[in-house]
Amino acid sequence: MAYKNIIVEIRGKVGLVTLNRPQALNALNEALVAELNEALSDFESTPEIGCTVIAGAEKAFAAGADVKEMAQKGYIESYLGKFLDGWTRIAETRKPVIAAVSGFCLGGGLELAMMCDIIIASETARFALPEITLGIMPGAGGTQRLPRFIGKAKAMDMILTGRMMDATEAERCGLVARVVAPERLLEESLAAAAKIASYSQPIVMMAKETVNRAQETALSEGTRFERRLFLSMFATDDQKEGMKAFIEKRKPSFRGR
Ligand code: HXC
């Protein structure tokens, strides 16, 4: 597929998607979301790819959903139509996804980042859910995911005031995993993705699935789920290889079996 709103590259075992609507600070319109879903779906079905990085531009990861596209929408048309269809597809990916965030990460942009598995931020990153200033509220999971990341107090503060949070505060309250110098953002994100992709793909996917269980289930159910998948790993060649390599003091060679 020829993409107009994103740039898609493959770097070794890592798929890299760069959001590319600089004229609109990477505002997410329907065409961009469809292209992103298409690229992710391709990566999901490409066995050689073990992890994806989604990056934006230096000034903006994404300044939200495209307000100019949304402004004309009516209720019935939106309800009956496909508005928001596909927006949460990224949360269903089975291989890990890293968001590399520089500059503005607002509204739907932050909702997109929160659907990724790891957010790595540049020191320049600024996060907000400013929908309230437009007479709406977050609609792609923001009201549900932000409190799970940073707790109710800060989530209410962000969602009801629309204020921006800088990278230091975002790391302190658990929204982002790492903060790095702007010039190191892509390198560090790709390196983390390459490391993930170097491990056994099925084991990585099971680990992701199991951590996500923690968000959605009671502790006793989650630990039971973990136990089942953990035991199943002893039926894989990669478990044998990983432990044998440790004992033989060499690097393991995982085959994804
Ligand atoms: C459409 C946008 C946009 C957006 C910026 N632009 N954000 N277009 N949708 N979300 C456009 C501007 O209109 C402008 O186009 C160009 O990008 C550059 O932006 P400026 O405003 O001139 O830049 P700057 O002065 O540096 O201000 C940056 C900014 C501001 C603070 C990020 O652009 C801003 O507040 N943007 C809107 C942020 C927002 O409210 N996001 C939430 C959207 S609602 P022109 O043509 O004038 O050059 C949302 C709901 C999701 O995300 C719900 C689920 C889908």
Helix content: 40-55%
What string gives the helices and strands in order? EEHEEHHEEHEEHHEHEHHHH
Mean pLDDT: 97
* Major sheet: 6 strands, mixed
Secondary-structure-based class equals alpha/beta
Outline type:
globular
Portion in beta strands: 15-25%
Number of helices: 11
- Main sheet: which strands, in order across? 1-2-3-5-7-10
- Distance between the first and last residues' Cα: 31 Å
Q: Would you identify the regions where 5 or more consecutive residues have pLDDT less than 50?
A: none
| Ligand set | hexanoyl-coenzyme A
> In total, how many beta strands?
10
Radius of gyration: 19 Å
Summarize the structure in words.
The chain is of the alpha/beta class and 257 residues long. It is built from 11 helices and 10 strands. It has helices at residues 30-44, 67-70, 75-80, 108-115, 142-150, 152-161, 167-172, 185-198, 201-216, 219-232, 237-247, and strands at 6-11, 14-19, 51-55, 60-62, 97-101, 104-106, 118-122, 126-128, 165-166, 178-180. The strands form 2 sheets. Strands 1-2-3-5-7-10 form a 6-stranded mixed β-sheet, sandwiched between helices. Strands 4-6-8-9 form a 4-stranded mixed β-sheet. Helix 1 links the parallel strand 2 (14-19) and strand 3. Helix 5 packs across helix 6 and helix 9 (201-216) packs antiparallel against helix 10 (219-232). It is globular. The two termini are 31 Å apart. The mean pLDDT is 97. Bound molecules: hexanoyl-coenzyme A. The site of hexanoyl-coenzyme A has 21 residues, from helix 2 and strand 6. Hexanoyl-coenzyme A binds at residues 24-25, 27, 63-68, 84, 87, 104, 106-108, 130-131, 134, 138-140.
